[in-house]
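Thread: "does anyone have the structure for this chain?"

Original post by V.I.:
We have the sequence but no experimental structure in hand. Need at least a predicted one for the grant figures.
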Amino acid sequence: MVKKYLSIFCLVIAIIVFLYMFFGHRLGASLYFWDIILFIAALITSFFMPKGKAKNITISLSFICLILFAGYTVWVVNALNHIGTK
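Reply from O.Q.:
Generated one for you, tokens below.
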């Protein structure tokens, strides 16, 4: 019973993290620092989950968040380089 609730809780955390990372970048770069912290939190919670579909979804969402984080980092670096060359 506890494992079931833990799975649901971790899955909800992962979905919140995913939505925040997906839409948060549009709110401004001040949120940038929290992205990697939320990714790590989602990934850590997934390790405490029992095996099953919810764990797979949580890990998948965590890595999608990491890809978004990496893409956003590249975008910021390119923007800064572009500003520096003018």
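V.I.: this helps a lot. The mean pLDDT is 66.
O.Q.: and The chain is about 85% helix and 0% strand.
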